[in-house]
Amino acid sequence: MNSLPAFELRDSGGATRSFPSKRTALLCFVKEDCPTCGMTMPLIEAAHRAFGAAVDVWAIGQDSAGNAKLVERYALTVPMLDDSALKVSFDYGLDTVPTIILADVHGHEVRRFIGFGRDDWREMFAELARQSGVAAPPIDWNSYPESRPGCGSKSVEPGIAERLEADARGDKMTARRIELGDAEDVFEFMFERGLTDGLPVVPPTPERVMLMLTGTRRDPRDVVAIVPPNLAPVTVEKVAVNAVMAGCRPEYLPVVIAALEAVCTDTFNIHGIMSTTWGATPVIVVNGPIRRRLDMNMGMMALGYGTRSNATIGRALKLVLRNVGGARPGDIERSTLGAPGKFTTCFAEWEERSPWEPLHVERGFGKDENVVTVFGLEAGSRQIADQTSRTARALAGSLGMALEACWHPKQHGSGEILLIISPEHADTLARENWTKAQVRARIQEVTARPVRELIRDDESGEGIPLSALGDAPEARLDEKIAKFRRPEDINIIVAGGNAGKFSAVFAGWVSGPMGSSSVSRRIEEATAT
Amino acid sequence: MKQVIIDPTDERVPIRRTLAARTDSIVGRVALLDIAKPRGNVLLDRLAEHLQDRLPGVEIKRFRKPTFTKPAPDDLRRRIAEESDFVIEALAD
Predict the structure, then answer these.
(1) Domains of chain A in sequence order
(2) Which of chain A's residues have a Cβ under 8 Å away from the Cβ of B12?
(3) CB < 8 Å to B73, chain A
(4) pTM here?
C-alpha cells in the first residue's frame, strides 16, 4: 500500500497538525483561485462537520492570503493548513487541485481523486461513514455537476521545484539575501545599487542561483579566486549569482569559473587590465567540444552580438570583476575612453574550419579537452580588409601591414596580439600549405622598420627617444626592428563567416611580465563527457 | 510575495581609515614615488628641485615601481613607510 509522505503544517489557528496522526485522514489540497476548489469547499466542510470526531478532515491550501479568503467565504470550521511553501504539495507530486486523498491510520493511501467528481465524492462520504460509524450527512447531490476538471497545482508552476531545491540546499548557499520592499522594482534596485554594467541584469533570485549551481560539481562555498583590485575571495556561489545576472545558462558556469581562475593570476594581471587608462579587457577564447554544446558562435558574427553563450560568459566575468573585485568605471577602472568590448568579449575558435592546430592544442592541451584562454587586449577588434591577394605571401604581407597600426605605427617591439583569420583568408593561406609560423615570419618581415623611421621626431612625437639608442645613436639608425618582440606573440586563430575576405585583430596592452600575458585553463564541466 | 535576491558583491564592509594628522610644516624625509609611466621622472625631477629650493631642510628620497601595470610590491611599500615621513606619488599620464 502506498505510504504517503509525512508532514507538519500549521492551521489557521496556529496549531501544528502532523500527518500521519494515528487517525483516518482526508487530505484535501486546494487553492483559492480555482473555481473547482471553490465548488468543493462546502463538501469538505460537510465532511469535517459529520466525521470530524473520528476522522481528520483537513483542507490544505496553497497560498496564505487565499487560504484566509476561503475560510471567510465558506465560513469554514474545517482546519485550513497552510502549505504556501508548497513543500507538501510538491512532495505529494500534485499536478492538479483539488486533489482529495483518503489515508488510513498508518498514513497509507486508501483512495484518491482529482478535480471534481460527483460519484467520487458520494463514494468518499460512504467510505467515511463506514469507517467512522457515523451516518453520512444529507447532501443535495443533484445541485452538483457530474464532474469538473481541476486547476493546476501551484507546486508545478515554473520555478517552484527550483525554489524548493534551493531551500533544501540552503545550508550550502551562504551569500547574503536581500529582501526588497513590496513596491520596489528589482531592476531599478540593481541599477541604483551599482550592481549592473549599465544594462539591465537578470535578478539573482535564490531559485535562479540554485539552478545555476547545477552547472558545476563544485561546492558553492569553494573559493574560486582572490579577485583584484579589492583582493576579495570569490566563492562558486558568488560566481553563480553574477552569472545569473549576466544571463548565463547553468552549463556556461564552468567556462566562467575557468576564465575567472585564469584572469586572477599574477601572469594575467587583471588589476592592470581593469585599471589602465588604455581601453583593455579580458578577451576570452573557448576551444574544445564544449563550444558545440554551448552553441557558441565561431562563424558569422563571431566577434559581434546575437549569441547568448558568447555574450553572457564574457559579461559574467566582467560582473564578477565589478561586483566582487570592485573594479568600477570611474573608480578603479579608469580607461580614458573605454570601448564597447568592455561589456563582454568572448567567442570560440572555428577549429574545424582551420587548416592549423587550434589554439589550445598549440598550448599543449588535447584536442578533445575544453579550454578557455584569456588575453589582456584592446577592448575591441579592428578589421583588416584584403579582398584581392591571391597568394599566401601577399595576403600575409597585407595582414602585417595592417598590424602596423596596433597601438601606434611607430611603436615596435610590442607584445601579444590576437589575430583572427577569417575562413576565406585561411583558405588562401592553406592553398599553399602555409603554416602559422610562416604567417608570423611574414608579418615580422613586412613590419620590420629601420630605427630612423621609429624615432621621435617633428612628424610624430611618439616613438623611440634618441636617448634610448646609447652613446652612438647614428650607428643604429638603419637597424631594423620588427613590430612584435617575438613571432609567437602573434596569436592566430580562425573564426568568422565563410564569406568575406576580412580578418581582424585585437591589439594588445603592456605585454609580458611587466604587464599581462595570456593564460589558458581547462574547463571542468559538471558532467563527465 | 516579497522579492528576494542574492547579494552579488563581496559583502565586505570597507575599513574606514583616517588620514594621518596634517602637520603645519614639512620637515624630515619626503619620498617621491615614480610609478614608471613615461615622463613621470621628468615631473618628479622638477618637483624635487622646487622642494629643495623652498624646503632646504628636507631630505628627498626617490623610489620607483618596477612597472606601472601592477600595484607596488609589498617590500617597496614597506621601505617607503619606514624611510619616509611624506610621500608624493607621480600618477600616470
Answers:
(1) 7-157 (3.40.30.10), 186-448+483-522 (no CATH)
(2) 230, 232
(3) none
(4) 0.73
